[in-house]
């Protein structure tokens, strides 16, 4: 909804108003069937004008705040002018000339009400579809994000498994190195003892025999 639609309804109302405002004066100079015909015409055009004003009021409720004051002022003026024309017509036409709303007017009012209800239902469906589409989009994005997070977790788990295997191999290597160091120390100790024994034997043989 926008002020553009309001302006379209404004043009329709102005056209109806220009036609309506001529009828009271013409009714003063007419009699009999001609006057009754003018009264019927006034009734029909007035009903159409009321429907247009109702449409303008609906547009007013949905209009942006920046347009609302101007549109509200116009609507009040139009209702005032239409009320004045009704009073003028009652003065111009004899009592009893105004009839209750015709069957055609009742049908038009029901049609307008049904159309408005259908438009409201269509808008509600559109909003529901838009919300469903947005929800589906969000759900798809969440699923994609969860998939990416799962891949990251799988990669992290694989890295942890590889790290565990590397640590296990490192522990084995360290144990092997530790055993070799112990063996080397024992061998070194044996060699030192043998060298000391040999050195002692040499000293004994050289100095004591």
UniProtKB/TrEMBL annotation:
Stated membrane topology is: Single-pass type IV membrane protein
User: Origin, by domain of life?
Assistant: Eukaryota
Q: Name one Pfam family in it.
A: V-SNARE
Q: List the coiled-coil residues.
A: none
Reply yes or no: does the keyword Protease apply.
no
User: What GO terms in the biological process aspect are recorded for it?
Assistant: Golgi to vacuole transport; intra-Golgi vesicle-mediated transport; intracellular protein transport; macroautophagy; regulation of protein localization to plasma membrane; retrograde transport, endosome to Golgi; vesicle fusion with Golgi apparatus
Alphabetical UniProt keywords? Coiled coil, Membrane, Protein transport, Transmembrane, Transmembrane helix, Transport
> Where does the record say this protein resides?
Membrane
Which residues are in the T-SNARE coiled-coil homology domain?
A: 110-177
Query: GO cellular component terms?
Result: cytosol; endoplasmic reticulum membrane; ER to Golgi transport vesicle membrane; Golgi apparatus; late endosome membrane; SNARE complex
Sequence intervals crossing the membrane: 186-207
This entry's Gene Ontology molecular function terms read: SNAP receptor activity; SNARE binding
- Give the family, as the similarity comment puts it: Belongs to the VTI1 family.
- State what protein this is by name: t-SNARE coiled-coil homology domain-containing protein
| Source organism per UniProt | Mola mola
């Amino acid at each position: 909804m926008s002020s553009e639609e309001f302006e379209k309804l404004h043009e329709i109302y102005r056209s109806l108003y220009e036609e309506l405002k001529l009828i009271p004066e013409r009714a003063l100079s007419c009699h009999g069937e001609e006057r009754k015909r003018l009264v019927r015409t006034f009734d029909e055009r007035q009903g159409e004008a009321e429907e247009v004003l109702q449409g303008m009021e609906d547009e007013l409720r949905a209009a942006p705040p920046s347009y609302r004051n101007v549109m509200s002022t116009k609507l009040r003026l139009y209702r005032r002018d239409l009320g004045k024309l009704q009073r003028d017509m009652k003065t111009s036409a004899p009592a009893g000339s105004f009839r209750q709303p015709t069957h055609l007017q009742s049908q038009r009012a029901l049609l307008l009400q049904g159309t408005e209800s259908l438009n409201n239902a269509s808008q509600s469906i559109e909003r529901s579809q838009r919300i469903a589409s947005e929800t589906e989009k969000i759900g798809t994005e969440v699923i994609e994000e969860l998939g990416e997070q799962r891949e990251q977790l799988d990669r992290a788990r694989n890295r942890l498994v590889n790290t565990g295997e590397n640590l296990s191999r490192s522990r084995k290597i360290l144990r092997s190195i530790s055993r070799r160091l112990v063996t080397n120390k024992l061998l070194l100790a044996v060699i030192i003892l043998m060298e000391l024994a040999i050195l002692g034997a040499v000293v004994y043989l050289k100095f004591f025999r």
